[in-house]
């Protein structure tokens, strides 16, 4: 390591006013000795660290751009293939398709239309740049402090020597102070300073916090009409996952947390999501709410009736407005049933057959039908998902198929069946929870209390809430390692719903934006610090893409590289020592 005295030795001092005469030979020799080399006079424009940070900016922007435009491009392509002639009259379908593609490509690069690319670039690229500059600043501050301490020590020694001098000339001579030296530190000098591990982690946390805060504030500035809370909640969930790994590793909390914590998170998240979908779907992201509606196969009129029972717009045994009174009468007519079975004024409670939408009278038979229907639909969803690895790496899949065809096919089909059974059970449990409350719990309550209840009590929130709570236990069908990923998938959506429920209209926009910025910045700081210094605490599904964008090697590869370097250093040291022993001594 270069000492501070070595650096001070190269510091230029102020030249005296009266220069001495030198001979040409001495002048030429001195000038040649201080002339810097071509490498020193022409340093590289960008350091390798800065080039790496710029690559991170490009990669993160590209990934954000792909995430923003790929779904829209696929949707545009599918729409063109299915309905190629659905364009304005007199317009070429191919030209309309090209214009639509160009519009999607242009919107993906616009910060005001879709700022995900800018969000990732500022968060990740800005983090790498800030970390580089902060590391240099901290090293420079440490080195300058060391130099200042050494200068003060030298001045004290000179003062002590001057005080110890007893010559009269020294006492009568005027006091002179040496001109102040201007210290210039090079990259080579800064490279000699090694920061502690704790200091490096603090620099990483500070850099990631500042860059993430700047990114979310940029989004608020240029996209004020677009919600960014889904990005923030995704970061919060991933940061909580890192904290969960730390808690399990250090054995904080009960022992069941590692095994069933994901199940508890999934159950509570699904209860919040499904309850919001039943009564206020605006609290959920639009595409997600639409997908739930499609998978539930619940008639919209029945869903409107459940919501009307909760908010009081539907009253049994009372007259209702025409648009309310005809909700279930029209449904009964479409199902081939007696319209009187859906007349609110004539009935005190809904028939189970109406709730079952004419499928069956028995609640158990209806639940079995819903399960079978959900399994068939889910198989069409999950079979391509489990075949995707074979499509991405067909050579490896063919090798496995040739080596053991029965095991390869059976594992794929079994995984598809397991995932399909999970989703089918999820759907069936929602229906069975509602039916259990209506046909078993409420009749028992009537017998115990002796009171007569109408559907305004029976079909209120408790039955749907029971179904929303039960459906989450279907995750037990999946393998344990899949449960955590599924919990992390639904948790941001549940938090989105809770955020909309709690924060909507209660705080000013500025306070809400500030809270979201702090939440996003702290979460990204935890996630990026874990990625760099506690890689084993970050889930592998996040390590791949995030590590590629940040140019971070995988945990195993990084460990192998360290071991290889240690072995190389040990081998080099052994060879040097062996060479020193075999070399004859000069003084022998």
Structure keywords:
588 residues; mainly alpha; 3 domains; Transmembrane protein 135 N-terminal domain-containing protein; membrane; transmembrane helix; Tmem135; transmembrane
Would you kindly provide a written description of the structure presented here, covering whatever features stand out?
This protein is 72% helix and 0% strand. With 588 residues, the chain is an all-alpha fold. The C terminus is likely disordered. It has 25 helices and no strands. The protein folds into three domains: 153 residues, no CATH class; 72 residues, no CATH class; 240 residues, no CATH class. The two termini are 32 Å apart. The radius of gyration is 36 Å and the shape is elongated. Keywords: Membrane, Transmembrane, Transmembrane helix. It comes from Podila verticillata NRRL 6337. InterPro entries: Tmem135. This is Transmembrane protein 135 N-terminal domain-containing protein.
Fold blueprint:
Layout lengths: L3 H6 L14 H11 L3 H4 L6 H35 L10 H16 L7 H49 L3 H5 L14 H5 L5 H26 L6 H21 L7 H23 L6 H11 L3 H12 L10 H4 L1 H8 L17 H4 L7 H30 L1 H10 L1 H45 L5 H4 L3 H10 L8 H24 L5 H25 L6 H10 L5 H28 L6
| Tally of strands | 0
Overall pLDDT, averaged? 79
Shape: elongated
| Sheet with the most strands, sense and barrel status | none
Q: What share of residues are in beta strands?
A: under 5%
Radius of gyration based on Cα positions: 36 Å
């Amino acid at each position: 390591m270069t000492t501070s005295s070595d650096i001070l030795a190269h510091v230029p001092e102020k030249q005296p006013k009266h220069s001495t005469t030198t001979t040409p030979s001495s002048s030429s020799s001195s000038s040649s000795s201080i002339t810097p080399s071509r490498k020193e006079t022409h340093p590289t424009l960008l350091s390798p660290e800065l080039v790496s940070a710029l690559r991170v900016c490009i990669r993160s922007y590209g990934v954000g751009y792909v995430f923003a435009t790929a779904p829209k491009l696929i949707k545009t392509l599918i729409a063109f293939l299915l309905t190629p002639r659905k364009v304005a009259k007199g317009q070429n379908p191919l030209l309309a398709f090209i214009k639509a593609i160009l519009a999607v490509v242009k919107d993906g690069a616009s910060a005001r239309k879709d700022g995900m690319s800018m969000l990732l670039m500022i968060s990740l690229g800005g983090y790498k740049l800030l970390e580089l500059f902060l590391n240099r600043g901290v090293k420079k501050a440490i080195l300058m402090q060391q130099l200042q301490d050494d200068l003060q020590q030298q001045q004290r020694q000179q003062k002590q020597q001057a005080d110890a001098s007893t010559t009269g000339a020294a006492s009568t001579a005027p006091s002179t102070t040496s001109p102040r030296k201007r210290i210039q530190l090079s990259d080579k000098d800064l490279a000699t300073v090694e920061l502690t591990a704790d200091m490096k982690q603090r620099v990483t946390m500070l850099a990631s916090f500042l860059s993430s805060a700047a990114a979310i504030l940029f989004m608020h500035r240029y996209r004020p009409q677009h919600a960014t809370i889904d990005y923030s909640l995704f970061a919060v969930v991933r940061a909580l996952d890192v904290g969960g790994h730390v808690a399990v590793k250090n054995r904080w909390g009960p022992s069941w947390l590692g095994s069933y914590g994901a199940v508890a998170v999934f159950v509570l998240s699904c209860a919040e999501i499904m309850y919001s979908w039943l009564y206020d779907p605006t609290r959920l992201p639009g595409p997600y709410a639409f997908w739930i509606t499609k998978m539930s196969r619940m008639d919209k009129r029945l869903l409107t009736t459940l919501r009307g029972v909760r908010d009081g717009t539907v009253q049994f045994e009372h007259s209702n407005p025409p648009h309310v009174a005809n909700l279930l009468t029209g449904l009964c007519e479409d199902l081939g049933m007696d319209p009187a079975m859906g007349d609110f004024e004539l009935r005190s409670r809904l028939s189970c057959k109406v709730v079952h939408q004419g499928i069956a009278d028995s609640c158990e038979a209806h639940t079995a039908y819903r399960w079978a229907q959900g399994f068939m639909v889910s198989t069409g969803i999950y079979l391509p998902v489990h075949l995707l690895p074979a499509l991405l790496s067909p050579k490896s899949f063919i090798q496995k198929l040739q080596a053991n065809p029965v095991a390869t096919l059976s594992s794929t089909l079994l995984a598809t069946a397991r995932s399909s059974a999970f989703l089918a059970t999820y759907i069936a449990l929602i229906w069975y929870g509602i039916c259990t409350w209506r046909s078993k719990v409420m009749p028992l309550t009537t017998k115990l209390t002796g009171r007569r209840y109408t559907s305004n009590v029976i079909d209120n929130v408790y039955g749907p809430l029971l179904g929303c709570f039960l459906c989450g236990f279907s995750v037990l069908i999946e393998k344990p390692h899949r449960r955590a990923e599924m919990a992390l998938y639904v948790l941001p959506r549940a938090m989105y719903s809770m955020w909309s429920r709690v924060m909507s209209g209660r705080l000013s926009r500025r306070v809400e934006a500030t809270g979201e910025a702090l939440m996003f910045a702290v979460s990204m700081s935890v996630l990026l610090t874990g990625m760099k210094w506690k890689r084993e605490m970050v889930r592998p599904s996040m390590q791949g893409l995030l590590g590629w964008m940040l140019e971070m090697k995988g945990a195993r590869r990084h460990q192998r590289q360290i071991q290889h370097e240690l072995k190389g250093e040990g081998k080099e040291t052994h060879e040097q020592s062996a060479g020193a022993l075999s070399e004859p001594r000069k003084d022998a």
